[in-house]
Design a protein that fits this description.
245 residues; alpha+beta; Arc Repressor Mutant, subunit A; 3 domains; 3-stranded antiparallel beta sheet; globular
């Protein structure tokens, strides 16, 4: 969805409207499909606190069981990302909210969703009890999965591999993808800390100094044998994850 405010959708080149989503979700529910995710992006051009709350009002009204909230990231492969990096004027770049505003929008969303029973279980994902994404939890918990198709990724618990990027290369089938050993120790932390359940500390732990530092700085907290990010730590999670690479 990204936004329920049509001017924000138009400014970013989206072709759907809020009305499109209302209609489509009604069609899904009429067909008996009730396990639905709705996503929002905090930081779209022209977005402000009032319009952000308008989108959250619609989320509450729709009673979606699962909601994803992403903070806008600058991607040099996107038109908007390249324009932001170049301090340009196209694609709504001058209208993108500040980083502080984007962080504030995210925190507003987390609190409002919590109040209606949609709890955060991963940095960008919120769900009613029992509606957490089993698909994505496999990635964050480092469980094995197989990817089929061009550019798909796979993991068998020990190594990772990527299929050829183009359909033509994938259809040819050769050479077989290169299997790269996974860094189990680092991945345990920078994937597991995405989850609200956190990571269980096992001794000996080569990251003890890093863990002590982020806990003492207020970016993480200990609960028994587990460590999880605090609300403050979530806002700088990418910087924290880099400590475990």
């Amino acid at each position: 969805m990204q936004s329920f405010v049509n001017r924000e959708l138009t400014r970013t080149g989206r072709k759907h409207t809020a009305e499109t989503v209302f209609r489509d979700i009604a069609l899904l529910r009429d067909a008996g499909i009730t396990n639905i995710n709705v996503d929002l992006i905090a930081g779209l051009p022209l977005q402000n606190e009032a319009s952000w709350n308008t989108s959250l009002d619609h989320i509450e009204a729709l009673r979606a069981p699962h909601v994803s909230v992403y903070m806008l990231e600058v991607d040099e492969d996107s038109r908007l990302g390249r324009e932001l990096l170049a301090a340009g004027l196209r694609y709504g770049a001058p209208d993108v909210p500040s980083e502080d505003a984007i962080a504030s929008f995210y925190e507003i969303a987390a609190e409002r969703l919590r109040q209606v029973g949609i709890e955060r279980y991963e940095i960008s994902n919120f769900a009613r009890p029992g509606f957490e994404s089993r698909h994505n939890l496999k990635y964050w918990r480092r469980e094995p999965y197989l990817g089929f198709g061009a550019d798909a990724h796979s993991f068998d618990g020990q190594a990772r591999w990527q299929n050829p990027e183009t359909v033509a290369e994938y259809a040819a089938g050769f050479p077989p993808p290169e299997r790269l050993p996974a860094d189990a120790r680092g991945e345990q932390w920078f994937l597991g800390l995405r989850l609200s359940e956190g990571v269980e500390i096992r001794e000996p732990n080569e990251f003890s100094e890093v863990i002590d530092r982020i806990v003492s700085s207020g970016f993480a907290e200990r609960s028994g044998s587990r460590v999880r990010l605090t609300s403050r730590g979530i806002l700088v999670s990418n910087e924290i994850f880099a400590e475990f690479e």
